[in-house]
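Supplementary Data S3. Sequence and structure tokens for construct A.
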Amino acid sequence: MGLNMRIRKEGAEGDMCFGNSEGDFWRDQREGVGQLVKNRLNLWLGEWFLDTQEGTPWQLNVLGKGRQTLYEPALRARVLPTPGVRAITAFQADTSQIRDISVNLTINTAYGVTPLAVVLSGQNNGG
């Protein structure tokens, strides 16, 4: 397909997987693209010291009252430029919790369609 993606797998707790050689990597697979999307969504704007302009604008556009018209475009803007993502074919978010947002996405990747369910918490970064 031309991308030649190799992404280290993460375990259930979010730690990188080691000890299984090539079995510790997603190689040109939709699950790897899904993992990249989750990682991009979980990075807070300004959190990465090498590029403080990178990240999801949680405090500006996502969490809090009165942000219903802002969170979907902000989250889509984080997902769509992810390597391997071609389109978001379904987007649904539950903002009924005060400090959390649950997002269900279906993304069309270079390797097929994959559903994602992500709970993004404002408690993770003092939000």
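Construct B, processed identically:
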Amino acid sequence: MPEVDAKAFRRTCGLFTTGVTVITTSVSGQVHGMTANSFTSVSLNPPLILVCVDERSRMAQCLSSAKAFTVNVLGRHQEEVSRHFAGSSGEWRGTFVPFGESVRLDDCLAALSCEVYAQYPAGDHIIVLGLVKDIYQQEEGIPLVFWRGTYTSLAGDTSRRACLGKIV
């Protein structure tokens, strides 16, 4: 079987539209955060989610010693927050709010406070399962979306709305 080209694999996976999250945790009183789009719900009973973290990242080290973390779902207005926690922009001036056993971003669209449930090695990443202990969500908001290596949105484009529900 031929080997899959890593760049082609990444480009192909980039065609799958994802939301954008920031994973936060607190270790020894210090808050750590990381942008992640590899997040999904796993189970309703018990309520489980998963995130995938590069095994070489600081967040992988933090989650191996932390007992809790938060998945912060970003709104369209938070592209700079995502860039900051991805390591590609300057100082972030937002604030954290205590949330469960961890912290959340104060203006996120939604957040899930999780207890570390299990971790599994998977290639160059670690799959971290979280048992959801608390939920926060704003009443309104538009999600930040990532597609083809760029930030975008599902709302605000009238040409896209015109196509909803129709075969184009």
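Helices lie at 6-13, 58-65, 79-85, 158-163. The domain at 6-163 is CATH 2.30.110.10 (Pnp Oxidase; Chain A).
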